[in-house]
Amino acid sequence: NPQFKGEWKPKQIDNPEYKGPWVHPEIENPEYQPDDMIYRQKEICGVGFDIWQVKSGTIFDNVFIGDDEKEADDVANEIMERVKDEKKMKETQDDEERRKEAAEKENKKDDEIDKEEDMDEEEGGDGEDKGEDAHDE
Question: Which of 16, 44, 76, 107 has the fewest other C-beta atoms within 10 Å?
């Protein structure tokens, strides 16, 4: 289109009264008193989690709620040690299962090979016997 002059933009007119971006006024509040315990709850009756997961079977556990950072670190270290031990046990179990599956596959292959050899011997053995019998007569 030869008449195309670029993307359309509205025309701007100067505003002689423009003073810049608006900044809200800060007004002193004489009744304000800082409260460092404002978020402290005396009793928590329930906790809710909104969890979105892609993979089914995800386990969500080891929740700690507290206000002591040192206690939280201690609990986290204890949980991490337990998780390491659980991972080791899981890896050992997985290795055993893999070995069993590999042994079963190997046995299955050996059984199939034995069956094929037996079939070959039966087919070949019968033919040879019949041929010799027929030739002897």
Answer: 16
**Cβ(96)–Cβ(104) below 8 Å:** no
Classify residue 75 as exposed, middle or buried by CB count within 10 Å of its CB (0-12, 13-18, 19+): middle
Residue 72 CB neighbours (<10 A): 13
- 3 state SS of 113: helix
Task: State the Cα torsion 109-114-119-121 to the nearest 10°.
Answer: 150
What average pLDDT score do residues 89-99 get? 93
How does residue 127 score in pLDDT terms, banded at 50, 70 and 90? very low
Percent of the chain with pLDDT over 70: 90
Q: How far, in Å, CA of 107 to CA of 118, rounded?
A: 16
- Alpha-carbon gap, residue 66 to 76, rounded angstroms: 12
Q: How many residues does the chain have?
A: 137
pTM across the whole model = 0.35
Ramachandran region of residue 6, left (φ > 0), alpha (ψ -120 to 50) or beta? left
